């Protein structure tokens, strides 16, 4: 009997990983079993390439990844970027001009070198990787906008995450994509048309796989385009309300190994 789906796409944080940042042995075993059956599994994440190592250390083998909310398609076996769709410096300049004019107090950073480095303004509040060698504090805004960036990061820490992304989206309407994947007041900005769905569509076309044959899992607003594009979009129980509203189905939470439980039922051993 043919499998019900030909490719599995899953978000990482809040979806595949538990809240403590681990992937359970059960989840790793289920993913390995599917790959051994010839069913590709691809990670589709807001993370940059440099943040994948922590996850790969918990898996039997590294999985292909669509990073930076669809801007980068990465082959970890060859350590090569297969496809990238960055914001050009000219576009970055216009985006930042609008943000400075319409979003008070915003601070900025960019993911450059296909997401292998992050450059940031001196007053940009660093969080998860503040002690890493791939960070650079720039002296001027001109420096920040001098090279293509696969993602522009805008922080407004005193603001509600959903309200802040609506403000940024309104300022950038028609110019760039704005979304968020956390509740920390961080908005992630990509070139117009660059979403998780677009990156996944590029990857699936390369493999000759239609959207109808894709099963996708997610938990945050940046997952909405992917979940609506895929043949079946599944939210974990801990997902943001915007994701729960559009999902075809809901599985257990990330701490309950919801992705693995759903896959085990769909693809029994």
Describe this structure in words.
This protein is 29% helix and 23% strand. The protein is of the alpha/beta class. It has 2 domains: 7-84 and 195-266, Rossmann fold; 89-191, Hypothetical Protein, Haloacid Dehalogenase-like Hydrolase, Chain: A, domain 2 (2-Layer Sandwich). Strands 5-4-3-2-1-12-13-14 form an 8-stranded mixed beta sheet.
Main structural class: alpha/beta
Largest sheet, order of strands side by side? Answer: 5-4-3-2-1-12-13-14
Most strands sheet: 8 strands, mixed
Could you name the CATH homologous superfamily of the largest domain? HAD superfamily/HAD-like
How are the SSEs ordered, and which strands pair?
Elements lengths: L6 E4 L14 H12 L4 E4 L8 H4 L8 E3 L4 E4 L4 E5 L4 H14 L4 E6 L4 E4 L14 E3 L3 H4 L6 E5 L5 H11 L4 E4 L6 E6 L4 H12 L6 E5 L5 H6 L2 E5 L4 H6 L2 E3 L6 H9 L3
What's the quick description here?
By secondary structure, the chain is of the alpha/beta class. The chain is 29% helix and 23% strand. The chain starts with 6 loop residues before the first strand and ends with a helix.
